[in-house]
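Internal ticket #5521
Category: modeling
Description: The requester needs a full-assembly model to guide mutagenesis choices. All entity lines are attached below as received. Residue total reported by intake: 526.
Assigned to: D.W.
Attached entities:
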Amino acid sequence: MLNLFQHLINLMYYKTLKRVQGDSFCVYHGKRDASVKTEFLSLAFLFVLLYVMHDILKSFAEAVGLIFSFNRELYSIILLSLKISGSALIGASLLGVPIGAIVGMKRFFGKGIVISVLNTFMGLPPVAVGLFFYLLFSRRGPLGFLGILYSPSAMVIAQTALAMPIVAALSHSAVASVDKGIRHTAATLGATPFQTVKKVIVEARYSIMAAVIAGFGRIIAEVGAILIVGGNIDGYTRVMTTTIALETDKGNFVLALGLGIVLVTISLIVNIALHRVQGIGVQGD
Amino acid sequence: MLKVSLSGISKKYNGRYVLKDCSYAFEQGKIYTVIGPNGSGKSTLLRIASSLEPPDEGHVTYHDGSSTIENNIMLMRRMTLVFPTPTLFNTTVFKNITYGLRIRGLSRNDVAHRVERVLMDVRLMDKINQNALTLSTGERQRLALARAIVLEPEIIFLDEPTASLDPHSVVIIEDIIRGLKKGSQPTIIMSTHNMFQAQRLADRVLFLYEGTIEADGSAAEFFDNPGDDKAWRFITGKMVY
Ligand SMILES: Nc1ncnc2c1ncn2[C@@H]1O[C@H](COP(=O)(O)OP(=O)(O)OP(=O)(O)O)[C@@H](O)[C@H]1O
Ligand SMILES: [Mg+2]
């Protein structure tokens, strides 16, 4: 074992030298005092690192095992997360895309203010949104009679509110960027006002898709709002992010890590999708 | 066939007159070239005459025979304007051309041969399935023209249709314009900075200067004697701005 490390480090040393000073200078087994010292330090560091990492690596391995053993608890939590954030995304898109399109195409009094508000709400802290809906849905709140606090419905509503401004603001810039040219062109080709609006939206389609994906990215990884209005009830409102927070607190890293891996994977997929869609939008079909 | 006339048109942008009291009755089936210095109001005149923009003062009226045509979508569909730097749709060349036909309710089969013929005219047949946004400047200009003439409009407004084109593309587009005159005989109202082109194509020339129609005449006479000092200095390149 030690030999192997030594060999590796020698090799690295050799390569570095080679890069710095060229081939001729260096002799593979020619050890100098300085290099022995470096070797020792590197090795010591590696072992300390391995020792410290041991627990984490072990949990990590178990977490991966959990994912590939199709653990029921894990997958029901993932599914609930996707369901809630997915429903919220549908809601946010149904509201946000038309709002963005209208703001992008119509001229009206206070348009600048609406855009500023949307842009501000894009960055609202999720906990603040959670608190707002908590007060709204709590028993004594104005919508307390609905009795939806600590239910998936409340979580969907809170996340809809979180994603909507992003979808709307990005749809707005998507539509506004194509609006003038397309509107005039459609008019010259004999489009009715309705056909013109349709064409503007079709031309902005890739950027609108990007807006929707960005909205999803915001809510799937969000914990503040969903925790406050959902309450993290086992098997009912417990989703990926809230489970990670709770299980970490309890010291149960395996489930937390497993969910973490899934969450990061989803984020990665979302971002790849975003990148692709934006790429298509620039290049054409 | 449709005819357009302007009476007392004025247009202000930011409180400044860009067009002042322009009146002109365009005859049906003729080619008009509008010339004049940069910023003299040529593009604005074309946009207003094609009802894309309302004038601040005066009227644009459209006639068919002796009856006046009301300004609505049906009228808009009988004419078209091509912008100097056209906006193309982010889709294939084919779908760009069919857009105007599709929104008129024609099916893809109805339009196929029409589209094909127009694509031949503008020499873009081999690009039919290419995304329009990847075309070269000259190809874009030709596609925009194709997209307009496939609608068989009765009045065509062309705003600098050959700006930034190479001589070959200029010839293609001029041939198309001449072809239209022989074929469906629309009224063609185009702006240009190319005096030779104006001379080659036009039946009549309008000289626009600081928002007013300073001079007009038949192309044959205009370039020899425009009957206006400013116009003379402009076409001979002696105008100092
Ligand atoms: N939407 C607008 N807002 C403000 N000013 C405008 C607008 N459109 C045109 N103008 C102004 O009106 C004047 C005439 O513009 P127009 O585009 O009609 O000129 P043109 O004769 O077509 O010029 P060119 O030969 O450069 O194309 C210019 O001074 C221009 O700045
Ligand atoms: Mg112009």
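Resolution: model delivered.
Comment from assignee: The beta strands of chain B are 2-13, 16-25, 31-35, 57-64, 67-69, 79-82, 155-159, 187-191, 204-209, 212-218.
Ticket closed.
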